Amino acid sequence: MGVEIRVDGLTKSFGGAPVWRDVSLTLPSGEISVLLGPSGTGKSVFLKCLVGLLKPDRGHILIEGHDIATCRERELYRVRRLFGVLFQDGALFGSMNLYDNVAFPLREHTRRSENEIRSIVMSKIEMVGLLGAERKLPGEISGGMRKRAGLARALVLDPEIILFDEPDSGLDPVRTAYLNQLIVDLNQQTGATFLIVTHDINTARTVPDNIGLLYHRHLAMFGPREMCLCSQEPVVRQFLNAQRVGPIGMSEEKDADELAAEAAAGVELAALPPIPLQLGPSNGEPRPSQRPPGQWCADNDVTPPPGSFEPDPSSAASPVPASAGAAAPAGAGPGVAGGDGP
């Protein structure tokens, strides 16, 4: 099962230039959270701080009683065993085939026999739908397959926390939809805590249990999916609707003159779109952390946008019947298989 991550007052700068200040949030155990933000707001830096690759200027990152921000190297090494990380391009070793790439953490950090390693590696390769491709080199497969191989490697030590750094970058919308389904299925199977950094709005609207937004050197919002998708906060509305109107500009923040010109012209933010149903596991069972559609809105006396939570068979957010994924490899989701696919 996953573990909770509590971040309190985290601040990071480079050469005196602040990346973000006083970031505080809690990633609930076993849930999927998404971190959004304009380019250059420090999302990848945040992931590196979580796993201890970068030290924050101040603040705390608490995981099972350990403070990643201040603990010693020996303690940090033990806590890092809780993590699996999927890097943007998979970060595979180009001279190793997929099997050896996935086996690398087991050979490096455990004393398991090669028979044990083979059993584990093939299990993870099957989970991500790459059976039959394990002897290929990274240069011989598609970008989506490299990402899935990187995901298999991230899973091989059975981590309780998995970080995804823009897993959909460079993928077309269809492959992104397959990858999103795989992420939801793996969360159901492993029970791990997932944090996804992404720019894909459809992913942010349908996959997570929680959404956060970094903007202008601070955390603009973090909370349940429905809370963020109902937010009237201008920066949240602008980003989730991919609009030019609002406080975000080409170089992150618009100046006062630009905002005044928009106001004088009577230009307003677009209405909030309907909130889609949350993407469900391909076996048709509920997600471990699933809440009834509209529950947060009802509990907090918030009226969701018209048309919210209505089933749409053509939508990526529609639950997939259990029969649809019956022929797919375990954990792969319908349509995710080896070969030259995603």
Automatic annotation (TrEMBL):
The keyword Transmembrane does not apply. Keywords: ATP-binding, Nucleotide-binding, Transport. Residues 311-331 have a biased composition (Low complexity). SMART domains: AAA. GO terms for molecular function: ATP binding; ATP hydrolysis activity. This is Phospholipid/cholesterol/gamma-HCH transport system ATP-binding protein. It comes from the Bacteria. Residues 275-342 are annotated as: Disordered. Residues 5-241 form the ABC transporter domain. PROSITE patterns: ABC_TRANSPORTER_1, ABC_TRANSPORTER_2. PANTHER family: INTERMEMBRANE PHOSPHOLIPID TRANSPORT SYSTEM ATP-BINDING PROTEIN MLAF (PTHR43023:SF6), PROTEIN TRIGALACTOSYLDIACYLGLYCEROL 3, CHLOROPLASTIC (PTHR43023). CDD domains: ABC_Org_Solvent_Resistant. It holds the Pfam family ABC_tran. Residues 332-342 have a biased composition (Gly residues).
